[in-house]
Amino acid sequence: MDLESRSPASESRPSKAYRTTLLLAYQSFGVVYGDLCISPIYVYKSTFSGKLRLHEEDVEIFGVLSLVFWTLTLIALFKYIIFVLGADDNGEGGTFALYSLMCRNSKMGLLSTPHAADEHLTAYKLEPHREETRTSLSIKKFIEKSQTSRLVLLLFVLLGTSMVIGDGVLTPTMSVVSAVSGLRIKAPELHENYTVLISCIILVGLFALQHYGTHRVGFLFAPILLSWLVCISSIGIYNTIMWNPGVVRALSPHYIYYFFKKAGKDGWSSLGGLVLCITGAEAMFADLGHFSNLSIRIAFTAVVYPCLVVAYMGEAAYLSKHREDLQQSFFKALPEGVFWPVFVIATLATVVGSQAIISATFSIISQCRALGCFPRVRIIHTSSHIHGQIYIPEVNWLLMLSCLMVTIGFRDAYMIGNAYGLAVITVMLVTSCLMFLIITTVWRRSVFVALLFTVTFGSLESLYLSASIAKVHHGGWLPLLISLIILMVMFTWHYGTVKKREFELQNKVSLDRLLSVSPSLGLVRVPGVCLVYSNVTNGVPPMFAHFVTNFPAFHRVLIFLCLQTLTVPKVPLDERFLIGRVGPPESGLFRCIVRYGYKDGRLESYELENQLLLRVAQFLQQEGGRGSSTNGAMSVISEPCTLVVGAPGGADGGPKRVQFKGVEAAAEEELSHEVWELMEEREAGVSYMMGHTHVFAHESSPFLKKLAIDGVYGFLRRNSRSSAVSLGIPHSSLVEVGTVYRV
Questions:
Q1: What are the start-end ranges of the H helices in 585-707?
Q2: Which of 499, 500, 544 is nearest to 518 (CA)?
Q3: For the chain, which terminus, N or C, has the lower number of CB atoms within 10 Å?
Q4: How many CB atoms lie within 10 A of CB 337?
Q5: DSSP class per residue in 715-735
Q6: What is the structure's pLDDT at 642?
Q7: What is the DSSP letter of 291?
Q8: Quick one: which H or E segment has residue 636?
């Protein structure tokens, strides 16, 4: 090939990818790393707040620095950057991403029962694996055969998820309160009420910014965090040279041995505060869907990690000569001339630090909602380029109110820090345990490799967890309470949703029975198209049978529509619609399964109507070309090619508004009779039918089941968004059928 004939576009593609990666790395500073980077403000203070304050010799100070360095290196760098980020689910991260990855590779999950055709989805085709090991098969069989094991695994995942959401309350509170408390260095007479008031004002401002989206917030916050990293690393270098250059020796791990030898049990107790040095490490994985593996790795290894090490080193060098300043070491270590500029940047950086966990909370709740483990909430996609960047108004304001309550109620950063540390380390331990299953059942590595990973990192995290649990009575009870409430909400919603679907499957009506009783009912077919929403993928949903029995009439074209969320992040648009005919051709009945990934945005009603009817028309064209009907068989219908008319400009490159009229004469001659009938019925009007369901526990059910279904689940259903509102169905075209389910 002539080198000169190569197109400029092909030559610029790699450079464009590099620019995109670097741009995402820049944005990640404002979203992912804030929490991790502001830890120097409170780590030494929290570590020396307990009995360790009685040990103020160089051995203890250098031992804490060595612990901080190796904790950052082992957990943040080795565990997350090198290993865990490689366990992404098609670019998505977080606890639920690990769970969905396992569900897709086995039958260990409880959250989805995919259709047989789902196995042919592109997203289900994983990279070539090693051969299944005997250990891998044994682990899979054990969990798959035991319903209890599958339930425990789901509860374990929900525990980690609820702890991350609990972090969304504690991180902003801890960060902002710690920074604002620096005011009392220059104004000791300032009353605590004023610092609490200032903290509350900053928190309200932070959550008020969230509706602008991660994209804009990232660009706004990234310069602040980069300025913060420059400040703390510069001051760290200055303090190291100025006060004690020999502090570099503390990076040697043998100082950890000397630390525990001298501090003993007090040293172990201090780990509950020291664990705060890795707060935000989990956000690197949870926020992965907002960015990319490479961008997060570049930002951490090239900038964040070295700056943090230098900052902690400088603070330890200052403390080795000023042991009396242990309780306000960060702000006391600032040179006099830069105190106020650094204080302002520190306050702004704490706002940035809170952004990481807020974004992660939005992502995780979106995944939980899609997989049926969280009540319906409004999800706003704030970027047309990065689909994972979302905003959830209801969750945002609930987080804000919770943060304000904790700030006003606790007031003390030490108590908040105890709660914060327990939540952080619990999430990390859950991730380590889930990685054991990923390594053995998904990556199909030997059990020795999985045990090496889990024991290495899990034992270190268990050590931190034991120290954090010992502080439950000093504030550590708060994340346990928050996570328990969230866990109860998620599990009860999942349980109620499963029981509702089971009732519909058990009480569905066969189509033959419905058609056989139609003459006795005096069934009337009215003009138009009706989309019947249900969770039933075969047969007739009980809601529709109830409707026909009481009102024997329905539209000439009837499409039973089932919206499914699969355990994949995204389903390509050309593989989303699965369409088949129900009954004989003259009945005008169809079934459509619309498949979404847990990170896909739901199509609005009008857009879904256009996409669906176009694909039904394409299905009829294909069926007409074969010269036979495909009753019962379902086909994947990709982009329709015959009826697409109008000006381009849609989200997928298709038309903005698809019309069935105005087709060119050449195309009109090719259209089958059934397609013309579909076009005419669409012109007559499109209606939507769904059940307005009331779910109650059966009278003979045990008390706990009645409490879960009638009490908690009923309360959540009444106070969450209705299905019609979530799907954007116009009220004027909606037919709701009231039904009562006794589960």
A1: 605-626, 665-670, 673-684, 703-706
A2: 544
A3: N
A4: 8
A5: HHHHHS--HHHHHT--GGGEE
A6: 37
A7: S
A8: strand 634-637
* CA–CA gap between residue 547 and residue 514 (Å, rounded): 12
| Measured distance CA(543)–CA(335) in Å, rounded | 72
Q: What residue ranges of the chain have pLDDT lower than 70? A: 1-14, 50-56, 112-130, 213-219, 383-389, 517-519, 624-672
Q: How many Cα atoms sit within 13 Å of 162 on the Cβ side?
A: 22
| Distance of alpha carbon 345 from alpha carbon 218, whole angstroms | 16
Within a 10 A sphere around the Cβ of 150, how many other Cβ atoms?
17
Tokens at residue 201, please? 């004002």
Q: What local confidence, expressed as pLDDT, does residue 658 receive?
A: 37
Q: Which amino acid is at 646?
A: G
Q: What is the pLDDT of residue 354?
A: 79
pLDDT of residue 55: 61
- φ/ψ of residue 580, rounded to 5: -150, 165
233, 311 Cβ separation under 8 angstroms:
yes
Buried b (16+ CB within 10 A) or exposed e, 575-587: bbbbbbbbbeeeb
Helix (H, G, I), strand (E, B) or coil at 562: strand
Res 229: pLDDT: 94
C-alpha–C-alpha distance, residues 723 and 715, integer Å = 16
The helix (H) or strand (E) run that includes residue 352 is helix 339-370
| Whole-angstrom distance, CA of residue 284 vs CA of residue 93 | 9
0.85 exceeded by pTM: no
Contact 276, 42 (CB under 8 A): yes
Query: Residue 599 and residue 569: Cα distance in Å, rounded?
Result: 5
- Contact (CB, 8 A) for 659 and 645: yes
What residue ranges define each of the domains in the chain, with the CATH number in brackets? 45-111+139-495 (1.20.1740.10), 508-625+672-742 (no CATH)
322 Rama sector, left if φ>0, alpha if ψ -120 to 50, beta otherwise: beta
Q: Rounded to an integer, what distance in angstroms lies between the CA atom of residue 704 and that of residue 711?
A: 10
b or e along 36-62 (b: 16 or more beta carbons within 10 Å of the residue's beta carbon)? bbbbbbbbbbbbbbbebeebeebbbbb
What distance in Å separates the CA atoms of residue 632 and residue 731, rounded to the nearest whole number?
Answer: 32
Report the pLDDT value the prediction gives residue 649, as an integer from 0 to 100: 39
- The pLDDT value recorded for residue 567 is 79
> pLDDT tens across 495-543, in order?
999 998 888 888 888 777 777 766 677 788 899 999 999 888 888 888 8
Q: Residue 162 forms beta bridges with which residues?
A: none
